[in-house]
Amino acid sequence: MAPTAIELIADARARLAGVPRERLGVRSEGRRLLGFGRATRILPVGDAWHLGVLLIADEEVFATGELLRARAEAIRGYTAEAQRARSERAAAAFRGGFAEGEVAHLDWTQIDVDAVDAGGASGPLARIDGVVTVTFAAGARMPLAAYLDDRIALLP
Predict the structure, then answer these.
(1) What is the pLDDT of residue 79?
(2) What is the mean pLDDT of residues 62-70?
(3) Average per-residue pLDDT in the chain?
(4) What is the DSSP string of the chain?
(5) pLDDT in tens, 20-38
């Protein structure tokens, strides 16, 4: 019988011991203080190993969302509004407590590993024909065991 998603993730956690993690963040909308608005911040809420489309924490597994590097706010010229918005999010991460240049993961979503093992799907994981698979790109699916092996082999 093929290994379950829970077993595969537990094995990955054991193999990742000692490998540096990256921090997860959530947006905190600025509140008013004495009538003045405070800037939005991105606050660190945990950490996880980043393996492609997966973020593996001690107890949970998440699907990746946006990835950015925190940096101090600076006046810059932009040719696109999307660049400006991304720079503002990077500055919000810095204001929230991420170090300059530190990776921050945003908009990640929790994966229900039990649902996958029950034959369903959650995020990029699904059980297809009894094998736990991961969708790592549009239309690209492979067994989770092989995906984790590949991703862990790429780590320093």
Answers:
(1) 80
(2) 97
(3) 93
(4) -PPPHHHHHHHHHHHTTTS--EEEEEEEPPPEETTEEPPPEEEEEEEEEEETTEEE-SS-EEE--EEEE---------SSHHHHHHHHHHHHHHHHTPPTT-EEEES-EE--HHHHHTT-EETTEEEETTEEEEEEETTEEEEHHHHHHHHHHH--
(5) 999 999 998 766 666 676 7
